[in-house]
Queue: 4 jobs
Job 1
Amino acid sequence: MSECGGTLRIVPLSDVNLHTLVDLFNDAYSQYYVEIKVTPESLDALIRREDVIPESSCVALLGTMPAGVVFLGVRGERGYICGMGVRQALQGKGIGELLMREALRNAADLGLANVTLEVIDANFRAIRLYRKLGFVRLRDVGVFACEFSCDAGRVEGVSIAGARALEVLPLADKFNEMLPAWQNQPQSIAKMSRRLEALVAQSRGATVGYAVFGAAGDDMLLLDVAVSPREGADRRKSIAAALVHSAWMHNNPSKGRAFNLPLGGYQEQALIECGYEMTLKLQEMVVCLR
Ligand SMILES: CC(C)(COP(=O)(O)OP(=O)(O)OC[C@H]1O[C@@H](n2cnc3c(N)ncnc32)[C@H](O)[C@@H]1OP(=O)(O)O)[C@@H](O)C(=O)NCCC(=O)NCCS
């Protein structure tokens, strides 16, 4: 690392000021697959919303220059890499690997059982790094966009009603066989709940499904949609589609977006039925620490 001046050391994120992090993050992601640009406000909000622990997250310093960063989020015994990046000019020199090893050491010191992350399926450099450090693919998730929602039709015996986002959060555990991706989990949603709305699907007096969504400008952001596994595969898809379409009618947006929803199951089928298209495929990866 001497060619760029100074020795390389890893410090906790809490030692580095927010404006420095913003500059580092935006440089690292400047030639990314999708446009990602943070501001001090949005990065600070991300850190809080995703339960990032600044003392356990890491920044690589080359001399005094911040060279790379990894954000570690923690919920109970579960950890999450909320983002990692190395300054463009310094990529491919081992800094990313050093950072991730340190973050995983911190995660193990915290007694975490596992650490997950999402990575764009085409980001082979990052995937190679993660595999090298023991991460394996858990499932695929997708980013979806929609310009016009088709009417998914009524589902016999099911009615749809408005609800508060906070009210439906306990259902996430009950209706999802696997937790939603980190940023769509109840802990993230709860922190945004004042800006979000929800719909529930009811059948025979019981709640059998929900959708949580919010407005982002003229767009509608769908954060989660889930239906009880008791409904059976086909009905599950139809109820999910009815919820998504009702959310659309309720918001009347110019565009719809959904991030990191599971692929290969009823949620993806429901989105497609409503006119959504997948714009990006990601892998959710996990490493077990004990
Ligand atoms: C992905 C990223 C964090 C990796 O950090 P890095 O410092 O460039 O990676 P390292 O030099 O530590 O390399 C570690 C491993 O990554 C893989 N890797 C890194 N650069 C690579 C390249 N150009 N081609 C193929 N594999 C590569 C290799 O497995 C490498 O190990 P090896 O040299 O023993 O084969 C960095 O490239 C980056 O910031 N990219 C832009 C932002 C991004 O994609 N972040 C990840 C989002 S999930």
Job 2
Amino acid sequence: MAMANSLCYAGPFPVKTPSKQSPVQLPGACVVRRSLPYLKFTARPASSSPPAVVVASASTVEAEPQAKSPTPPKVLPFRVGHGFDLHRLEPGYPLIIGGINIPHDRGCEAHSDGDVLLHCVVDAILGALGLPDIGQIFPDTDPKWKGAPSSVFMKEAVRLMNEAGYELGNLDSTLILQRPKLSPHKEAIRANLCELLGADPSVVNLKAKTHEKVDSLGENRSIAAHTVVLLVRK
Ligand SMILES: [Zn+2]
């Protein structure tokens, strides 16, 4: 996943916080009273009205008053997101796909467990929510994510989705790798993905294809994944 230390983000809708806590209202005048585990909210400079989100290792949430937006944020009945990820394959590393350890002669060299599928699913959910990408929310420059199981990122993405008032409509993922064959492992991967998402198997689809021996993907030197999600307003 991409490296980044900071980001600017203006969410398209108010993010609901867990019960008993005040909402974190992203657009317009912003009042934030609670602590979020990974995100810090600060004012976006210049003309844009919504506050920006800045990644922080600290758990504090800060916000400054903003000029009121001329139009209210749209609360859409559906939101679509796309995720993409690619990792280099190197000998001596485990190959973890969708939380399942796949026997292979090499695996992903990455700061976390290098789970290309979970990373791109997280990115698709974050993208649908109009949030920054996984590399910005969980920067690989932060030692706390070193070797972290990607299920941690998934749980956070699902939490953000729920707090925003959405649930998974359906998800379609495509893995691209030359070797090994994924068909013996596909159902285990999909079952684990469903569990992490809290989703019925009927709305979680997983496909795999080779890269026709072309480029690094086709030469067993990398692995990639695409995911599209549809989120539905609860
Ligand atoms: Zn990744």
Job 3
Amino acid sequence: MADPSSYHFTLPKSKRPSEVTLNEPWYPGVQPFWPACTTKRSVDPILGVTAVVIHATAGSSSAGAISVIKRAKDPASFHWLVPDEDEPQHGQLVWACVPEALAAWHVRNAASHPDVNGGATRVNHWSLGIEVVNAQKNDPFSDWQIEATARIVRHCWAKYPNLLHVLSHAKLDPQRRSDPGSHFDWARFKGLVLNGEAEAVDPLVALAKPLSKLKPAEANGCCDV
Ligand SMILES: [Zn+2]
């Protein structure tokens, strides 16, 4: 079984895409919560971004993950959210959750790994965070969730010239976190990112469907910081 704490690859400058579009509407109602769940980046918001961290929510809905952004006590945050297969947005869009220019709170400040930026801490300041809705224990990821996550990473790769590391939360914080988990097909994901097949995923650029089918917020949310 795959070990999520080993999930990591780097992006070769020679293969950097020129532009990759995303269908990424704001998750409804998140804007008022940004001041309480983000920080001004300590590095240049474009040139200083060098990593993308892949997470899974350990919950079963987008609304449950978003409830972590909205909670008053110990909020967490992430830049994008990839819907689960039973949600109407699956196959259609990924949610933008907080501005990329701000540091989202998706990795504990003390977490680090010697393979990544020389073991630097405060990962949130120099990274972007993607959450994939997945309940974890024995919940498979859909093919589209892997493709959509790869497309987000390619979007970032095109936009951030110094982006180098793509890795799991588990690699940065193995004592506390195992996400995105052993069911996330990291090998396929890596191939989609590096070879650009994710750009062939047509549904991700399709128009968003109505939001009326969103589930109510759940008590459990994503992995926190
Ligand atoms: Zn996580």
Job 4
Amino acid sequence: MAGQPIRIAQLSDLHFGRHLPSVADALLDSLRELGPTMIAVCGDLTQRAREGEFRAARAFLDGLPSPALVVPGNHDLPGWRIWSRFTRPWRRWRRHIGTDPHAAVTCTADGVLAVGINTARKWGLHPDWSRGRVNARQLAGILAEFDRAGPADLRVVIAHHPFLLTPAGLRRGLVGRSALALRRLHRRADLLLGGHIHLAYSDVVDGMVVAQSGTAISDRLKGEPNSYNVIEVIGDDLTVETRHFDGTTFTAMIRHHYRRRDRHDWQVGDPGGPATPA
Ligand SMILES: [Fe+2]
Ligand SMILES: [Fe+2]
């Protein structure tokens, strides 16, 4: 399957309020140099959903060099401000980010159709309200958008909470109703992008490539440096490259390869390994 190269920069867990300004500047420099087809911002833009944090997030988004699709994370809800959390949970998100958190958002670029959904919830029937959930209405919305995609378009789903965990992240939990989501998206989506765990990894689940990015610019590290992913698709080959912040700049460190078997059906390709520094 031929096609133009596609490059998606995947960022997550910016956590303005706990961000490192020098890392944020280095990230913007790296993205401007990369010039990606599109940028996926996978939630947790703020630490406590404060006004100043949203203003800083907005200024960062305004500096991005490519079309960006932005979804909320659990930290973009008022945390312990319970009254606000229940009566006007997304007021600041709407004001500063400008999208409807209850509707799917889309981004189209050359050869890509990406759909973003909000998996953060103001409460849940469990003690850990940081856990997210996807519902049947959201899945139907994704599929309706995909029906409008070109036959060769890469179909991307962007959400904050993960559809895949590694042993290091098992206590965090998958996004609620992940099994239903994977069944509905099977052979309909190519790539599922997320954050929340603050660890970068990727693999294939039910024929879809799942890629998670770490915390791009915050000090809330979980044993890995700040990072972001560059996902490159050329024909039937897809590479997830994780770039770590090395104290000065973002450098390619890990690369995993995936190969298309058929339309919207992927498998693990050549073994991944250390990347040649970019
Ligand atoms: Fe986070
Ligand atoms: Fe999160």
